[in-house]
Amino acid sequence: MFNEMYDGDSVRPEYKLIQDWIDENGVEALTEKRAEAEALFRRVGITFAVYGEGGDPERLIPFDMVPRVFGASEWDKIERGSIQRANALNAFLTDIYGDREIIKAGILPESMVTGNEAYEAVMEGYTPPGGVFSHIIGVDLVRVDAETSYVLEDNCRTPSGVSYVLQNREVMERMFPDLFRGGIVRPVDHYGDMLAEAMQSVAPPMCDREPTLAILTPGQYNSAYYEHSFLADLMGVELVEGQDLFVEDNRVYMRTTRGPERVDVLYRRIDDAFLDPLTFNPDSMLGVPGIIGAMKAGGVTVVNAPGAGVADDKAIYIHVPEMIKFYLGEDAILPNVPTWQCGKPDECKYVMEHLAELVVKEVHGSGGYGMLIGPASTKAEIEAYAERIKADPAGFIAQPTLALSTSPVLTDAGLAPRHVDLRPYVISGKETKLIPGGLTRVALREGSLVVNSSQGGGVKDTWVLSQ
Amino acid sequence: MLSRTANGLYWMSRYVERAENIARLIDAGRRMDALPDAGVNGNSEWASIVIASGCSTTFPHELEEATRENVVHHLIFDHENPSSVYSSFAAARENARAMRIAVTTEVWDAINETWATMRSLTPSAADRGQLSGLLDWIKQRGFLIRGAAGASMLRGPGYSFVEIGKYVERADATARLVDVKYNVLLPEDQSVGGGLDYMQWQQILRAANSLRAFRWVYREAVTARTLVDFLILNKVSPRSVAHCYCEIVEGLEDLDPRTTDQLRVLNRARRMRDDILETSVDDVLGQGLHEWLTATIVDTNMFAGELAAAFGFLGPLESQSQSQSAS
């Protein structure tokens, strides 16, 4: 198991900064700062709503005070690999809603694309400005040793969490100003400018002026509402709800106290199904009737475009390395986790025989729900899960139980290693880029591999060193 | 500014003001309750507070059964009462949270902390000896939130809606506070203009935090005439209806209204202001104080309705030719 801070008894160079601080100030100083940090988070209202679990629905995501650190060359690889992946995924989306070269080339069966739940036939023949379907892609990475990070999954719809990246940094800079002196840690606070610039660069064809940007939220009861308002504030754009917008002559307008005002690029944080009751779910109260028509006519750009979810499906995931080869002519810089598809009889047979060692996931599931972690499950749980696989083999994939890397967290008994993952956010517009950093999620329970915030996960500030 | 945002800021502000005014009403009840001869005719002081707060329909008891305890509970802590201090602070926070990017961190902090404390209070916080402290706290939170808004918000349309909301609510509340007296029965041996009558007026002034100010302006003991002048007609008094109307007009002018409906609202506000500035105490008393106050409350509410419609608060603003193209 790879420990990112310690190599045996010696501290890895990336974490020297942290070790020096602790040696000088003691772990107790960290504990004191923790209470201060929590008060700060609570004050700014950065909470994460978890519904249906009882307790305070506006709870804080636990924040761990020890940063997770990447060296410059470690980051360089993650950056290049994530950008490469985002470019390939966008090329794929433009292709499958266009000429479908990848299907003609026999790399993917047509049924895997058109039969996919996230596939939106209404998008066929639509090429978004710049060929970008998914303007913000979260690439979930897990590290297994000093050299190797696997891509666990892609998030091409509306990945969330970036507000934590920025707020975690804000809090850390307030708590530990001396650690940030001299630009040792690369800043992340230009995320808002980067996103706004990308949105401006994909203005729709009918836009004949500086484009007006807005963020569409389902409203304040959505679990990510804080993030929506945070991003709108960061970019200085309106945070709108469906009821604030209407479509007229293929253009989208906001209802303001001064009358209608046009919106050119809309970063929507509501799911495809709720976006346009005329096209998708007719009962949606959250969406904007006619917005899909306006988008296809070139009156508005929707960020991320509907139908992008087909690229982050777990069945498609397996083929991303081939996509990279096909569209970019390159080898994948960041490999996939070795994956068995239960839809293939011989692979399924292997999975059924090795359930106790594997992690099995639903192809269409998300958020860490409905998965089986073989080594952590009882015999009865494994048997019950096996029945589910038998009933619908194609609905499941399996992966080895990865020895996720650990990073130290602050516990009541001092520092202790816990498993972490990483989600960098790749922004695509005229260019594809990302901020140096991302969301590090950490499984706070000892031994746990589940980092999801809905299941006992926390977050850490993620540092990329400038050299 | 989004109409929905304007709507949210306006209501956030109204609810903060409402919480404070409910506290002032209770304070008036508490003070009258402490007067000699109070309670001779049952608890009419407390019934009058329920009536003046506009909560007689939600009040879960007969008005004759109104007591200090059940009125305080209903007006401060009752979750079922949409106008209780609890519900008002909750609604103020909900609106602020929904408009998070339109309010400053300072305003949000003040409202959020207020709500966190309010939520943690139990009715024992109003036990005898603690009630006036609790009422002071509620009023202070109002001062803090308004102060945060005044000191930190951009002077743009958002602030104008905050101001207008505050003064619409306050005009209504002051009219209701003065009307408390109408429903408090004087014992038969006490006459209008007599000792108890005088003391009751004095308590109303105190509840408006205006006794000292009143003295500075009039230099005489309070009477119905001077009180009406001070709390209704005199625009130097910050809680007077006249002052509120003046501020509403200013807020609307700052918004620079353009549409026909918006201009009509501005004209209505100006008319209300001009009318009240020309009204004399004799006009008010001649019409009957209670009748005059009732008419003012109705006028203010009709104005608020027109304001909401003109700025798109009531559901969506329709564009001139809403012909949605189906995709």
From TrEMBL, chain A:
Residues 67-443 form the Circularly permuted ATP-grasp type domain. Transmembrane segments: none annotated. InterPro entries: ATP-dep_Glu-Cys_Ligase-2, CP_ATPgrasp_2, UCP005522. Coiled coil: none annotated. PANTHER family: BLR5612 PROTEIN (PTHR34595), SLL1039 PROTEIN (PTHR34595:SF7). This is Putative circularly permuted ATP-grasp superfamily protein.
UniProtKB/TrEMBL annotation, chain B:
It comes from the Bacteria. InterPro entries: ATP-dep_Glu-Cys_Ligase-2 (IPR051680), DUF403 (IPR007296). It holds the Pfam family Alpha-E. Residues 1-311 form the DUF403 domain. This is Putative alpha-E superfamily protein.
